[in-house]
Specification:
The chain is an alpha+beta fold. It has three domains: 197 residues, TIM Barrel; 82 residues, Golgi alpha-mannosidase II (Immunoglobulin-like, Sandwich); 115 residues, Immunoglobulin-like. The protein is built from nine helices and 23 strands. A six-stranded antiparallel sheet has the order 7-8-9-14-11-12. Strands 17, 18, 19, 20 and 23 form a five-stranded antiparallel sheet that branches. It comes from Reticulomyxa filosa. Belongs to the glycosyl hydrolase 31 family. InterPro entries: DUF5110, GH, Glyco_hydro_31_C, Glyco_hydro_31_TIM, Glyco_hydro_b, Glycosyl_Hydrolase_31.
């Protein structure tokens, strides 16, 4: 029987049934595979609370997610809830629910369409989308097939710039060492980049929670008055500063459009070369271990340490990269990573970084707020003014332009 409909009146019994059968005190995340088509006849005719499945249509995932969330908030009021479903509906973002795009096959065209699908989905206001990186259905010779290895690397690169970063495949050993040293080396580079950007990404999640922001953004959200971006389906913003153009075909070149609305320029993330906006870059080289990334002038990117999981190392040392050409502003958000009501109960802190381009000044605000486990020792902020071959790529910048030892008080850095 499709429990999506039963939840309308049986939310509490359903929760305790699941708690007894699959749920343990330390489980906070759920992976929902149920879908309406599993029970097509009952879905259409079952009548619960004078409402049939035919009338409810696609709202079933909203009720499933809401049922678990409501009861978990009672059962574990301080823990954060997360569930991943292959279906979604407006309002589901309030439940801690994310969506993945379903059981997809592995091909270049599917990768292309996944990029467009991710942007279309998030244009609806639902901010947490994911996919089966590499495809759910994979070729039988996936571990030795050179074509598939290229696809897997390119897909991993795209996935690193989606809100939920996850790999999955049917009857597959998806650990990347199974695909040989080249695949392992290339995906590790992008994996390290994703995890080094955790301070930036976690702050974007804060903006999403309080401002209705979306992390992965169709260009039209940031450039609504630039007609050239309206129909671009394979290029997007990751937060306010990073423009991403994944390579989805078998060649190592691509074309990128760099928009301009306020005179901004764009910095190549890998080389530090600056480009003017409102132009196409045709047939630019994109080595297999890279993805096309451009950072907007005025951008402030905050890099953490190299880690293999989110809480492996505290953020004692941060690299702050400044992309000159315009004024910039970014808020670093931090909390203990555990408390569900961190924001509501003001158990978090923020630090504002503001770049004034004319005066070449970076202002770092006083830290506002506090939370249990907050870093209270002196922190090191390595400030880098990005230039050609300086402050580029994934690794730490060996010679930062300024080093700030931050105690929580306001600091002004002059260049």
């Amino acid at each position: 029987m499709p429990f999506g409909w039963m939840l309308l009146n049986l939310k509490v019994p359903f929760f305790f049934l699941k708690k007894k059968s699959i749920y343990m005190p330390h489980v906070q995340s759920f992976f929902f595979l149920i879908k309406k088509k599993d029970y097509p006849q009952i879905n259409q005719t079952l009548n619960m609370s004078q409402t049939t499945g035919r009338q409810l249509a696609n709202t079933y995932s909203l009720f499933v997610n809401r049922a678990l969330t409501d009861r978990l908030h009672i059962d574990q009021p301080h823990k954060r809830v997360f569930h991943l479903s292959r279906s979604s509906f407006p309002g589901q973002q309030a439940t801690g629910g994310a969506v993945w795009s379903g059981d997809i096959s592995a091909s270049n065209d599917v990768l292309r369409r996944q990029i467009a699908a991710s942007l279309n989905f998030q244009l609806s206001g639902l901010p947490y989308w994911s996919e089966d990186i590499g495809g759910f259905f994979r070729p039988a010779d996936q571990y030795t097939n050179p074509w598939y290895h290229r696809l897997l690397i390119r897909w991993f690169q795209f996935g690193a710039f989606t809100p939920i970063f996850r790999v999955h495949g049917s009857e597959s050993h998806t650990e990347y060492w199974n695909y040989g040293p080249t695949v392992l080396k290339d995906v590790l580079l992008i994996d390290n980049l994703r995890y080094r950007l955790l301070p930036y990404l976690y702050s974007l999640a804060y903006f999403t929670a309080v401002d209705g922001y979306t992390i992965q953004r169709h260009l039209v959200l940031d450039y609504p008055d630039v007609p050239q971006v309206w129909n671009i389906a394979d290029e997007f913003m990751f937060g306010p500063f990073i423009l991403v153009r994944p390579v989805w075909d078998d060649i190592n070149t691509t074309t990128v459009y760099l928009p301009r609305a306020n005179g901004e320029t764009w910095w190549d993330f890998w080389t530090g070369i600056e480009y003017v906006g409102d132009q196409y870059l045709y047939n630019i080289s994109v080595p297999l271990d890279q993805i096309s990334l451009f950072v907007k002038s005025g951008g402030i990117l905050i890099f953490g340490p190299f880690v293999q999981w989110t809480t492996q190392l505290p953020w004692y040392v941060l690299e702050i990269r400044i992309y000159r050409g315009m004024d910039g502003y970014f808020v670093l958000y931090e909390d203990n990573g555990l408390d569900r009501l961190s924001i509501e109960n003001n158990k978090y802190s923020t630090i504002v970084f503001q770049w004034l381009d004319d005066s070449k000044t970076l202002s770092i605000s006083q830290r506002v707020g506090s939370f249990p486990g907050m870093i209270t020792v002196v922190r090191q902020f390595n400030i880098v003014l990005v230039a050609s071959n300086h402050g580029v790529g994934v690794n730490d910048t060996t010679l930062p332009d300024k080093v700030v030892f931050y105690t929580g008080s306001a600091v002004q850095v002059n260049f």
